[in-house]
Amino acid sequence: MTKIGIALGGGGIVGCAHLGILLALEEARIPIHCLAGTSSGSIVAALYGFGYSARELIEFVPSIDRSYLDYDYGQFLNKLFRKDAQTRGLVRGKKLFELIAEKTGDARMVDLKNPVAILSADLRRGRQALFASRPLLHPLPDSDVFSDISVARAVQASCAVPLLFQPVEYKNHLFVDGGILENCPASAARALGADIVLAVDLVFADPVDAPFHSFMSILYRVITINVASQSKRTAQHADLVLRPHVGGIGMFDFNQAEHCMERGYDHAKERLDEIFDILDRVDRACHRKAPSSMTHLLTGKPFASFRSRQRLASTTSSFFSKIRQ
C-alpha cells in the first residue's frame, strides 16, 4: 500500500492552518499514514497521531488562549542582568505540557496509533532529536532517536522556542524548539516510511516596510529570515509543498486561530488537483496491478480515483461556514 506522510512545520498560532489542511484531506478521503511535526506542527502531529480527527481538534481550538502561556516575569526580570543569572526563558511551558497531557494522558511516543516523529534540538549534544513512535526505516544524519518519552514532554520540547520558552530537561539532554534545525520536517516523514510526502511550510520572509528600531524587532526578523530559508531547503524532500499565506500574524495572536484554519482549509482545497496528480502517479507506478490499493486510514473506503477527483473536490463542504451558524 502506498503510504502518505505529512510534514507539519512550525509557526506559532499560524500552525492552526494545519488543522484546516487535514480537514480538507479528510473530506477528500486522502489518508495520512504518518506525520512529522516541529514546534506548533508537533502539537497537531501528536494529537492527530493519537487518534483525534481534524474536526475534533478544530472544535477544541477556541478553548486555547493566552492563559496557557505561563509567564515567569518575576524570575526572568530579576535574573536577566545578574552575572549569576540562571533564568532560561520567559515562559515555563508547564501549561503546554498539561494541555497535551490532558488530551493524551500518560501516553508515550510508542503508544501512538500512527507513525509520528516530533523534532527538537538537543543543546548539549548539538544534534537534532527525533521523538519517534516507530523505528525509522532509514537513519537521519546527525540525529538521535527517542521513543520512551511521553507525548506531552516531546511536544513541550519541540515547542520550546529559545529565550522565550524554558528548555526541557530529559535525562541528560536539554531540548529546545526543533525549528532551529529543521522547521519543515519532510525528511522525517520520509524516514517513517512515507512514499509520498506533503509538506506544510508556514514561515514567510516577505518584504516589510518596518523601521526595526528595537533589538527584539531585529532579532525576530533575523530568525524569521533564517527559518524561512531553511524551511524552503528542507521542504525539498517533499513531493508537494503547501504554503497557505495567512498574512502578518504574531506568534501568539490567538484571536486569529480560526482565520489560520480557514486559510489552510481553502489552500488545501485549491491544491487538491495537484495532490491527486501526485497520488495517482505514484500509485500507478507502485501498484499497476492494484490501483485501488490505497484505502482510507479510518473508514477503509477506497481511495478516490483520478476520474472522480473533480466531482469530489466540488462537493467538499466548508466546515467553517457551518460553525459560524
From TrEMBL:
Sequence motif GXGXXG, location on chain: 10-15
Molecular functions per Gene Ontology: hydrolase activity
PROSITE patterns on file: PNPLA, PROKAR_LIPOPROTEIN
Lineage top rank: taxon: Bacteria
Presence of the UniProt keyword Ribosomal protein in the record: no
TM ranges: 6-25, 32-52
Keyword Ribonucleoprotein assigned: no
Coiled-coil spans in chain: none
Motif placement: DGA/G: 177-179
Residues the record marks as active site: S39 (nucleophile), D177 (proton acceptor)
UniProt keyword list: Hydrolase, Lipid degradation, Lipid metabolism, Membrane, Transmembrane, Transmembrane helix
Pfam families on file: Patatin
Sequence motif GXSXG, residues: 37-41
Domain PNPLA, chain residue ranges per copy: 6-190
Gene Ontology BP term (one): lipid catabolic process
Protein name, UniProt field: PNPLA domain-containing protein
Listed InterPro entries: Acyl_Trfase/lysoPLipase (IPR016035), NTE (IPR050301), PNPLA_dom (IPR002641)
Organism this protein belongs to: Heliomicrobium gestii
